[in-house]
Every structure is written in C-alpha cells, then in structure tokens.
C-alpha cells in the first residue's frame, strides 16, 4: 500500500496547477456559448420586432398614399406614427433624420416630412403617375443593443435593422375575380 502512495505521488509531481487553466478555458468557452444563445437571441427578437413594425408601417403608408388625397408629408407622418406605436421611436426624433438606407435602390426618391427634412429611410418609386402606382420602402432606424455575455469576447454592442417594401396601385379591371360555387 505504501508503494502505491509513492507511485501516485511520483505521477502527480509536475501536474500541480493544471486544473486552473483548464477551468478558465472551460469558463470562457461557456461564456462564448452563452453569448451566442443570449445576446444573439435578444438581437434576433429585436430584429423580428423591427421587421413587424416596418411591415405595418409600409402597409399603412402605402394605403395612405394610394388614397390620392395625401401628400408626401402625410405618408411620412403615417409611417413614423406606426413605427412609434410599435417600437417607441418618436416620430420627430433625431433617429429618423439621421437614418440612412444604404440598400435603397437609386431610383427610389426619399420623401420629406412636414418640417422639410429629407427622410432617407422612407422612399418612394413612382411606377405610374396617372394611377399613382408606386413602391414605398421603409427602413426602421438602426437599433443598437448592448450585449451581456459577448463582452467577454470583445463585442459590446449589436446593431439591428429592418426594411420593408409595399407595391400599391389600382387593380387590373380585366382581372378574373375569384369566386366559388356553393
């Protein structure tokens, strides 16, 4: 039995302190996986909220534009009102004025608000001026999320954005109307 203790002690020499680096490595690895789960999950949820708000705002703005009795300012006000109701971004905030849409196609013209500010994130492409057929594009201002676990690997914030487009125009009078026989 004594010889077993001697052999065990000889084997353990030189291995003192190896557990600490191993625990540190496992802890950092777990924090990285937590960053993927928690921080990217929060960013995905915020992106989904932003996309829903952009979808609702572009539909409301497009229907407002199609009514024909509205101006560019009315459409912008409608879009910003819907985004404010869904995301809490105030309609007259600096976030809208400083918002840029780098993915906006060149043939989309930015709209203006009632204050004369050009809204790069709310743009319109005219398809037919007589029928007011057009495509409205809305990009929600970027949202910056602070991370919790990703700070361990040097990522302090995540930026989330969403955009939506709606095409509006009169219906084709020659189109077949769906019907059924009861």
- Spatial arrangement of strands, main beta sheet: 1-2-3-4
Instruction: Report the span from N to C terminus.
Output: 93 Å
Structural class: alpha+beta
N-to-C series of helices and strands: HHHHEEEE
* Alpha plus pi helix count: 4
What profile does the largest beta sheet have?
4 strands, antiparallel
Overall geometry: rod-shaped
pLDDT under 50 segments (min length 5)? none
The residue-averaged pLDDT reads: 83
Strand content: 15-25%
Strand-helix topology:
Layout: H1 2-12, H2 19-66, H3 72-87, H4 94-98, E1 109-112, E2 118-128, E3 133-146, E4 157-168
Antiparallel strand pairs: 1-2, 2-3, 3-4
Explain what the structure shows.
- The protein is an alpha+beta fold and 182 residues long.
- It is 44% helix and 23% strand.
- The protein has four helices and four strands.
- It has helices at 2-12, 19-66, 72-87, 94-98, and strands spanning 109-112, 118-128, 133-146, 157-168.
- A four-stranded antiparallel β-sheet has the order 1-2-3-4.
- A hairpin with a 4-residue loop joins strand 2 and strand 3 (133-146).
- The chain starts with a helix and ends in a 14-residue tail after the last strand.
- 20% of the residues are buried.
- The model has no long low-confidence stretch (mean pLDDT 83).
């Amino acid at each position: 039995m004594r010889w077993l203790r001697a052999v065990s002690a000889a084997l353990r020499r030189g291995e003192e302190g190896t557990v600490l680096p191993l625990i540190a490595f496992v802890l950092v690895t777990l924090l990285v996986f937590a960053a993927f789960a928690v921080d990217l999950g929060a960013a995905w949820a915020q992106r989904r909220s932003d996309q829903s708000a952009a979808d609702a705002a572009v539909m409301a703005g497009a229907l407002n534009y199609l009514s024909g009795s509205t101006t560019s300012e009315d459409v912008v006000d409608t879009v910003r009102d819907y985004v404010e109701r869904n995301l809490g971004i105030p309609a007259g905030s600096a976030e809208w004025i400083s918002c840029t849409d780098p993915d906006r196609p060149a043939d989309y013209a930015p709209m203006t608000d009632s204050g004369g500010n050009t809204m790069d994130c709310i743009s319109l492409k005219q398809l037919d001026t007589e029928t007011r057929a057009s495509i409205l594009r809305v990009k929600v201002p970027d949202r910056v999320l602070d991370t919790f676990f990703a700070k361990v690997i040097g990522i302090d914030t995540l930026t989330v954005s969403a955009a939506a487009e709606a095409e509006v125009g009169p219906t084709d009078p020659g189109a077949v109307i769906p019907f059924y026989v009861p």
